[in-house]
Amino acid sequence: MKRITGIIGTMILLSLLAACQTVKPMPAAAPGHPATQFAVPAGQSMVRTEVLGFSPTAEIGQTSIDFAVLFANPEAVKAWKISMASNRGNQRTFSGNGSTLPTLISWDGRKASGEVAPEGNYTATLTIDYGRAYTASTSKSTSFILDSTRPTGKIGINPELFSPTADSNTVTLTINGAKSISRIESWTMDIYDPGWNLFKSFSGTWPTNSVAWNGRGMNGDLVVSAENYPVIVRFRDEFGNVGIAQSTVPIDLLVTKQGNGYRIDNSRVYFKDFTADYVNVPADLAKQNVVRLDQLATELKKFPTYKINIVGHAVMVHWDDAALGKVEQDTVLVPLSKARAEAIKQAVVDRGVNAAMITTEGAGASDPLVPDSEFSNRWRNRRTVIFLMN
């Protein structure tokens, strides 16, 4: 609305100026002498814009630019043109004759071919040809920016491994963004749980570019132990171009007090489907498994006198059929979750934890955190819980 009001105001001003003009026709030439030409009074012809710039490729915001146009001595105009030029030359020209004198020109930032013009600083130049009646008139707009580049950047995470129940109970997420010819204006940050459900959102205006997160979601839920939480930042520049940066917040093993002992809700080791094999999985997951098991062994060594019970849990496929579900639980899920608990036991023993202190169980799908019918959240049921008892 502000932009439209500005354009209307400009057009009213230009109309008043046009109403005050007087036509100065060329006087008759003496025999044998050329006609004398008179210059159009300075400042009467105008091409003007109210905006600082635009982006023809923007997802939101200003995708074109408007110019109010005033022709001095309009009845004498033979031809006119408006050229959009940067330091790389003229990129688009609008033209016509005296029978069509526009009061408004809109440019979408593209060449006549449809290709987006090069970004940079531009000026619109109005050139008017009056034939023999008046001297040709030239006027320029103020400089404006054509910006077609998305912002770029990264997300900084400190500390790199987040433990929200520790003394340092927040993680700082910093947006490091950059633009060449315009400035970043605003940003949004969305944090997702491992099932890609929106967990927490932040937003801000530049130059504020960081948030301190306590690990809790929009409903107050705490992050899950040893999981990865994807982060997507969208940052918008002043002309509507939107850039995207992605990262992940890795959650540390969360050791919580429970009665006379402690509990680790999830070790987050990824297994090959329907097996206890955590080695022959995709390379990025195999690498992550090594890191998680190293962390788990280090944590367990802090409790050398505690008995350790590793309990595997699984997701039921036949949650909607009691008979099939029982068969699945007894013949598939309990043995599978027991085998996975044993695999984790062997992994931490190989890393120096006392095997005599460890027992294992397979709970299968008997203790779900959410109903197995909740497809977007049942990832939480596929876990390994570790109890430490003194």
Quick summary:
By secondary structure, this protein is α+β, with helices and mostly antiparallel strands.
Task: Report on this structure.
The structure is a single chain. The protein has 390 residues and is of the alpha+beta class. The protein has three domains: 145 residues, Immunoglobulin-like; 104 residues, Immunoglobulin-like (Sandwich), CATH 2.60.40; 136 residues, 60s Ribosomal Protein L30, Chain: A. Helix content is 17%, strand content 34%. It contains three helices and 21 strands. The strands form five sheets. Strands 2, 4, 5, 7, 8 and 9 form a six-stranded mixed sheet that branches. The chain has a five-stranded mixed sheet with strand order 17-18-21-19-20. Strand 7 and strand 8 form a beta hairpin.
Tags for this entry?
390 residues, 60s Ribosomal Protein L30, Chain: A, six-stranded mixed sheet, alpha+beta, Immunoglobulin-like, five-stranded mixed sheet, disordered N terminus
